[in-house]
Amino acid sequence: MKKFLLSAGLVIAVTGICIASEGIFYSETYINKFAECLPHTESYDTDIPTQDENTPIIHLKSTETIIGMQAGKCATKSQVYSEDLKQDIITVNCTFTNDQRVSLAEKMKKAKTDPQAAQEFQNIVADYVQNRPEICTMNNLLAN
Known about the structure:
By secondary structure, the chain is an alpha+beta fold. It is 37% helix and 37% strand. Helix 2 runs antiparallel to helix 3 (98-111).
């Protein structure tokens, strides 16, 4: 059951765009490094509520890494570790053009204080992960 619940809600959690009540969780350092595509890694703990009484909360740790420039694009990697399953459950690798990277960095900055901007940022990144394999590829390790 835990694997099903994790699979059902992972795209939002894994893309590194979980929105907390105080705003988007990317630090200023991460945003600034991303804007320049400089290597950097940060980790965040995330709790996702479920509708399952046996597993009311799923505990995840997301590690966001800016790898740096590769073939003229900014490469990033997101890894999600399930505290409940004691294993990595998903990875997302993205490569952003300069225009995409600059636009996303601006949206990250705005998202920290503007809920509408946070939603817009979340929608863009979710679209990249779900519909744009030339930008982001997702590997669901639970499906393997």
